Amino acid sequence: MRKQLLRQFLKKIVKLLVSGIDDGYFPLKYKGRNGRTVMLSVVFKDYDIIDIDFDFIIVDGDDGTSVLNSLQTGDVCILDGLTFGGFNFVNPSELKSKYIIFYSSKPNIFKITRALDRHFNDERRDIIINVISNLTRVSTLRGDVYIYTNLDLKMAKNIIEEYQVFDRIPLPLKIAHEISSSLSTFLLSKKII
User: Domain total for the chain?
Assistant: First the structure.
């Protein structure tokens, strides 16, 4: 009976549209709001890519939340951390979709706090520190990961494990990383960003 319920639950998860969200490459001279990079969403249904959408964020800017909210995403977004394009960031309380903020290892809060204190005096410091301080360690079949989510923890774990095909990093994040890095490098070479 329990196995049958678990199978039904997992079938519902697989039917969810799951997005991987990542940023692209940028040269160091873009730090301090001196350039843009890509923020990209890859939407999966089961293990098939069904949509890709991207827009530009300002490196070290504060437009991450609005850009993410404007992208085509699935029912659940798996974000590669909270910061994108340097210290551009998303505010979880303002996101339109369900989310899992994902870290494959625990971030060093001391180093993050020191960098934020040196360069930023705005709301991002409190938001980033709050999320990093409240990460939940989740033991998965591929090892421990750290997440911050607005989903039920069991559901978040099941989604992560469903997409941990090769290692701890869920497939939608791996693919979002590959595409966003390649796209931003290409756009940079064409002097578009």
Answer: 1
